[in-house]
Amino acid sequence: MNAPTPTAGHLVLHGVSAGYGNVRVIHDIEVVLARGSFAVLLGSNGAGKTTTLRAIMGMAKVSKGDITLDGKSLVGRGTRDIISEGVALSPEGRQVFASLTVEENLLTGCLPASGWRHRRTRLAGVYEHFPLLSKRAAQDSGTLSGGEQQMLAVGRALMSEPSVLLVDEASLGLAPVMVEHLFELLAQINKAGVTVLAVEQNVAVTHYADHVYVLEQGRITMGGATADVAERLHRDIASAYLGRSSPTPDPTGPTDPQATPRDHEGDPHE
Fold first, then answer.
1. Which of 94, 105, 141, 253 could form a disulfide with 153 if both were Cys (CB 3.0 to 4.6 A apart)?
2. HEC assignment per residue over 184-231
3. How many domains would you assign to the chain?
């Protein structure tokens, strides 16, 4: 039996461990998203960010803990059912159908099946958020720029009219100016009432969020209000690069004046 969720929230991950087959990738994850919040889950490659989103969507096996949407468990349910409950994913790598037009791609996101009756209304809503997609509606998606394809991936997820939008590595491979534009659009979607959880390696986007979580080696190591987490991250980065103690030379250490404490840490080939 799943443990009870201790904290009320719109989307809650309580003590979640998940992975593939018998291999656990994430461990004891605790994330609470209030309705209408914007959270960023930060982590490096291999930290477990995508697996966390896949666990929410029913695409990775949850071996421990619970995932709830408005108090209703999502664990053990199929992806289609989870989309019907109001959760949608914009996947890593965009994964648009290159040979389909922009509008045809958007229509593939019109789930559940009953939503097909409202496809024109939903398209209008997506085009309101992304006017550029309206101009490109008849264009093959494979001819779009990377930033335009990312907008399309997010727009396709919005076609199911979710209450929770999961966005996997939206900034990947994009120029900083496009990243800023894209996250401004995500902030507008959030202000329209959609709860947003974005997983990222890019620390610069955290100022769009009200909460930030840090994932390292499959575990949450830090989480809270964005300003608090940013201050702690700054301290940790300073400690990692400058050292925790005063810079008094070690007489037994290297004599190279360019040497730093990091010269003796980690893989020398990195």
1. 94
2. HHHHHHHHCCCEEEEEECCHHHHHHCCEEEEEECCEEEEEEEHHHHHH
3. 1
